[in-house]
Write a structure and sequence with these properties.
With 119 residues, this protein is mainly beta. The protein is built from no helices and eleven strands. The chain has strands at 4-7, 10-12, 18-24, 36-42, 49-54, 61-63, 71-76, 81-86, 95-103, 106-109, 113-117.
């Protein structure tokens, strides 16, 4: 079982919403609340782009301009889960979405979840 697992992807029409989840497995001794989290996305043949960040305490968030005002990152440390609420989706949001946990030099990636925005 992977340490991180994304879920919530799917196919939607433009203007619709999705909420992605990134849940950490608890059996590896992973201290979820100590890690900063990021959401990235990647389209075929392109680099993986950082789109959202949340600090370990949930106080600080940052967004890429391409998603600012439409996407919201949040976390529930009690559930070891980070969320990405995506509203007003556009065709250009179509990508594989990945979460990444980081703490100093430690980094962990999830396997990704596909989001398709198409009419």
């Amino acid at each position: 079982q992977a340490l991180l697992a994304e879920s919530g992807g799917g196919k939607v029409q433009p203007g619709e919403s999705l909420r992605l989840s990134c849940t950490a497995a608890t059996e590896y001794g992973f201290t979820f609340s100590e890690y900063n989290f990021n959401w990235y996305r990647q389209t075929q043949g392109q680099e993986r782009d950082l789109i959202a960040y949340i600090s370990a305490d949930g106080v600080t968030t940052n967004y890429d301009n391409s998603v600012k005002g439409r996407f919201t990152i949040s976390r529930d440390n009690a559930k070891s889960t980070v969320y990405l609420q995506m509203n007003n989706l556009k065709p250009e949001d179509t990508a594989v979405y990945y979460c990444k946990a980081e703490l100093r030099t430690n980094m962990y990636w999830g396997p990704g979840t596909q989001v398709i925005v198409s009419s």
